[in-house]
Specification:
The protein is of the alpha+beta class and 403 residues long. It is built from 10 helices and 12 strands. A hairpin with a 5-residue loop joins β8 and β9 (258-263). It starts with a strand and ends with a helix.
């Protein structure tokens, strides 16, 4: 007997889908087909069996599994488009090799960029609606304005309802896919190396009460460093200077802006703030194998800042993550281009809105709300403009340094 089950958002959380497939196998339902368009899973009833499933995203159609995966018991169940479902009958603790997740992470990121574009479009449309409504209220003689009145009022009401539904679904998709990517990325990262265990620093994590006690005694110091990602070289220099003064970096806050230092002995430390679009397993393992310790990793889906640190012996060469000058310049240029793409469109939009309000002021006086909006837009223009300029100044400093 063949049954089909509808799973519309199964690819949003592949780990949850894998657990569901394993539970279906234990009930005697063997997966035989997936319809990507209708989102249906087809099962054939048989004998209950224990199985571990792994779903991967492979751009190469009908590619066979690697010899390493075959040796450890992995078999290819099916392939639907670029989605591949693999299975292993061995207990999970006996499996020494697992299929790669990087394809899913990259695929999810592409979908997230699309959803982010939709969300930005909806926000811009909302700003335009607010602006037009404000203008309409200011010129209305009756003092009120309602677009939902009249025989065609259902059209804007329907559009508003659909926009709200789309906005909620977009936000949900971004949050869910981001959480999935975080779990998939951390699936194979060596935890001991990532957390800094076994190194000469970032070990013996204190409890909150112990941190409070050390703060009150002055042995633990917390300092804020806001906006350091727009000039990461300044952060690296500042951390290294703190180490020379005997302030040893203990940990970094979750937001990446709070830095906690223990009073100790001066150390020769090298720090590197690195921006990665996709910080995958290989990225972390390569650097940890070279002696670097991951001190902080941002949770942003669109860009991932990673702060690395390494202690070295005085008199020896300072360690470098990127020994090639060209790679360092490429990183600095990518940082500048990334933040320019993020903030320049918004800056231009806000400048356009201010210019529109200025032109309207020649026909009628601006009310208090319009004046407040212009002030807020001006503050945002200055703030976003400073972000963009600081990143390009960082790139220029690095380029001059390597000349």
């Amino acid at each position: 007997m063949i049954i089909k089950i509808f799973r519309p958002l199964w690819s949003y959380d592949v780990q949850k889908t894998e657990e569901w497939l394993a539970s279906m196998a234990q009930k005697g339902y063997e997966l035989i087909r997936i319809n990507r368009l209708t989102r249906y899973f087809y099962f054939q009833q048989g004998e209950p069996k224990a199985a571990n499933y792994r779903i991967v995203f492979d751009k190469v159609p009908n590619q066979s599994l690697s010899k390493g995966l075959l040796i450890f018991g992995w078999t290819k169940v099916l392939q639907s488009g670029k989605w591949v479902v693999t299975m292993n009958r061995l207990p999970l603790e006996q499996i020494r090799a697992l299929p790669d997740r990087e394809g899913i992470v990259k695929h999810n990121k592409k979908i997230m960029y699309i959803f982010m574009g939709i969300l930005i479009y909806l926000m811009v449309a909302l700003l335009n609606v607010i602006l037009i409504s404000t203008i309409a209220l200011s010129v209305s003689k009756s003092g009120h304005f309602n677009v939902f009145n009249g025989p065609y009022g259902f059209i804007p009401a329907t559009a508003l309802g659909l926009s709200i539904i789309l906005c909620i679904f977009t936000v949900y998709s971004l949050i869910t896919l981001n959480k999935t990517n975080q779990r998939l990325t951390e699936e194979f990262i060596q935890p001991n190396k990532q957390n800094g265990e076994g190194t000469s620093f970032l070990k013996d994590r204190l409890s909150k009460n112990e941190e409070k006690r050390l703060k009150s005694s002055g042995q633990l110091v917390m300092k804020w460093k806001l906006g350091w990602m727009y000039a990461p070289d300044r952060l690296e220099e500042w951390l290294e200077e703190m180490e020379k003064k005997g302030y040893n970096l203990y940990r970094v806050g979750k937001t990446g802006t709070a830095f906690y230092f223990k009073k100790g002995k001066p150390r020769k430390m090298c720090y590197c703030a690195d921006l990665q679009n996709t910080a995958d397993t290989n990225y972390f393992n390569i650097h940890t194998d070279s002696g670097w310790v991951c001190l902080y990793k941002s949770s942003s889906w669109s860009q991932k800042w990673v702060l690395w640190g390494q202690e070295y012996v005085p008199g020896k060469a300072k360690p470098q993550i990127y020994s090639d000058k060209l790679n360092q310049l490429k990183l600095a240029r990518r940082i500048a281009l990334t933040y320019s793409a993020m903030f320049l469109p918004l800056t231009i939009l806000y400048m356009y809105i201010i210019g529109l309000n200025v032109r309207l002021s020649t026909y009628s006086n601006l009310d208090r709300l319009q004046i407040i909006n212009m002030i807020l837009y001006a503050i945002l223009i200055l703030m976003f403009g400073s972000y963009v300029s600081r990143t390009w100044l960082y790139y220029n400093r690095l380029r001059k340094h390597h000349q």
